[in-house]
Each structure stands twice: as C-alpha cells, then as structure tokens.
Write a structure and sequence with these properties.
By secondary structure, the protein is an alpha+beta fold. It has a single domain, classed as Glutaredoxin (3-Layer(aba) Sandwich), CATH 3.40.30. It has 4 helices and 9 strands. The chain has a 7-stranded mixed β-sheet with strand order 2-1-5-4-3-8-9, with helices on one face. Strand 3, helix 1 and strand 4 form a beta-alpha-beta unit.
C-alpha cells in the first residue's frame, strides 16, 4: 500500500469509452483514484452514486476522478450509463495498476478468504505524489470526506 508522500505509480488504462488515460497526463491537477471491487454491486453503486451526486464540488477544485476496478471496458460503460456517472471509470483487467497501488489483497467475507480489491482511495497532488490515503472507505460518505479534505488542502 502506498503512503503519503510516495510518488503515485504511472498507469495507462482505457476508460468506459475506450479512451486511453495516463496519470502523467494529469500532472498539475488534483486526482482522486478510488478503487472498488465490482461494477453494479450494492456498495460500489452507493459509492459511485455518492461521487456522482457531489461531482460538481470536485469540479470546483478542478479534481479529476477515476474509479478503478478489474471489470471490462464494456462493463464500465454499462455501469456508467445505468447510473449516469459523470466521471471516468478505468478498466484494469490485468490488475497491474491495482497491484502497483497495493489494493489487491486477501479479503474475508462470511468466513471465506479470497483475493480481491480493497475499497481504498488515493488523493494525488498536482506533482504526482500521494497527498492522502483513504482505507476501508464508507461508500456513501467517502466523496464528502474527500471534498472536505480538498477544501482544507487548497
């Protein structure tokens, strides 16, 4: 897992529309990268919709928002259209970025242990360094926490 002050690892992934995105393309801007387990599941939908509903506040601070999971571009497109998500979803089917950011880990649910994506987010500063790490986020409240932090940082 990355720590505050670490350089955020570069990535090169496709979004829900097949457009290529690299972290280096966003130097000079704040970037929120939120990792989530799976499109169209209850917690992930709550988190995405909460970010959607507060999205104008991210625009005010000129913050770019990326949701990242191992789902396909096609799955992301369906999810984004179904919930009218105004931000970018990145597809990391190879889990290369997910592993670089340290969010592929053992998880436990109802006594079963398995590998999965941790619900973790990183706020990246305009120089490409980790400014804040959010672990075990509460889906419905996460976007408000980030917006409050952005107000205090700027």
């Amino acid at each position: 897992m990355l720590k505050v002050g670490d350089r955020a690892p570069e990535f090169d992934l496709l979004d829900q529309n097949g457009k290529d995105h690299k972290l280096s393309d966003y130097l000079g801007k704040w970037v929120l990268i939120y990792f989530y387990p799976k499109d169209d599941t209850p917690g992930c939908t709550k988190e995405a919709c909460a970010i959607r509903d507060t999205f104008p506040s991210f625009g005010k601070s000129k913050t770019v928002v990326f949701g990242v999971s191992a789902d396909s571009v096609k799955s992301h497109k369906k999810f984004a259209e179904k919930y009218k998500l105004p931000f970018t979803l990145l597809s990391d089917e190879s889990k290369e970025m997910i592993e670089k950011y340290g969010v592929w880990s053992k998880k436990k649910f109802m006594g079963r242990v398995y590998m999965g994506i941790l619900r973790t987010s990183y706020l990246i500063d305009p120089k490409g360094k980790v400014a804040k790490v959010y672990e075990n986020v509460r889906p419905e409240k996460h976007s408000e926490d980030v917006i409050n932090d952005l107000k205090n940082i700027e």
